[in-house]
Every structure is written in C-alpha cells, then in structure tokens.
Amino acid sequence: MANRPIHVAVGVNLLGDREVLGLWAGTGGEGAKHWLSVLAQLQARGVQDVLILCCDGLKGLPDAVGEVWPQATVRTRVAHLMRGTLRYSSKQHWGAISAALKQVYQAPSLSAAEAAFEAFTDAWGTKYPAVIKLWQSAWGAFTPFLAFPTEIRRLIYTTNARA
Fold first, then answer.
1. What's this model's pTM, rounded to 2 decimal places?
2. What Cα–Cα distance (Å) separates residue 157 from each residue in 69, 95, 140, 150?
C-alpha cells in the first residue's frame, strides 16, 4: 500500500460559509496540467470566480489558477512557511524566531511587514540565511493577503477547514 496525498478544495463563500468542493487523490507528480484539469472540473461544477486561493506551495497550481481565474490572488499559507523556517533553524531558537515572524505575517500592511522582515533579517540573517532565502522566495506568494481587511485575513490565514 502506498501513501498518497488527498487534495481537498474548500470554498468559502461571501457569507463565510465553508463548502468542500472536491477531493483528489494525488500521485506525487501533480504539475500545472494536473491542476488545470482540477480547476476546470471546479469551474464545470459552477465555481464562477475565485478571489483568493490559499495553498501549500503545490507546484503548478498558481500557474493553473492564472489560466482559469486570471484575477484570483494565489497565496501560500503561513504554516507552510513556518514549517520550512523551523526545519532550517535550531530548536532552541524556535520561540524567538516564531515571535519575530509573527510580527511579519500579522503586520497591518505590506510596508509594516517589510519593516518587520527587515528587523528579522537583521536579527537572524547571519545565523539562518536559509530562513531568509525561504521567506524572500515566497514573499510574492505570501504577502497578497496583507491587502485584505482583518476579517478576510482570518478566513484565509490557513487552509485548515476547521479554522
């Protein structure tokens, strides 16, 4: 028996209600072509528009979203970045690093997030350059949600359907 991921599409409507839109068994080789097929299925089922799509950094998904819903904002979830951050840092620093990065991802604006990240880089960049590189490479996919009000951010903070 092989372990396979199950990808779940959960939609949140304008009232804040969550709905499971579909489940797909992954094969480990999901690229843009696969995700284009999945999104086309969702569109055929009646999903007319997407404001924000949150994902775990699945390769090919942002490109596919751009094909199907060109005005959608694709966002990498914070937990995905934090998992990578902790992987590249010593356990003894996890608390301090997590607290400093919380100032970045909970910043009230993009400029505040940039300032908080600059402070984080000054404090930890020499010790953990891989963490800095991780956040810099994900910055464009992570920061779009900062343009939304707090109420919407709460809904898109995680891909966890229970949140």
1. 0.73
2. 21, 20, 16, 10
Question: d(Cα 129, Cα 98) in Å, to the nearest integer?
Answer: 16
Higher pLDDT, 2 or 88: 88
Angle, alpha carbons 101-102-105 (nearest 5°) = 90
Tokens of 66: 């751009």
Q: Please, which residues have CB within 8 angstroms of residue 100's CB and are 6 or more apart in sequence?
A: 116, 119, 120, 123, 124
Output the CA torsion 52→69→35→47 (10° steps): 80
- pLDDT(94) > 70: yes
From residue 23, alpha-carbon distances to 18, 37, 85 in Å are 14, 13, 29
Pairing of strands 73-76, 18-25: unpaired
Phi-psi region of 60 (alpha: psi -120 to 50; beta: other; left: phi over 0): left
| Chain segment 129-146, per-residue pLDDT in tens | 999 999 998 888 778 878
H or E, element range at 25: strand 18-25
- Residue 134 is predicted with a pLDDT of 93
Q: Using CB atoms within 10 A of its CB, is residue 42 exposed (0-12), middle (13-18) or buried (19+)?
A: middle
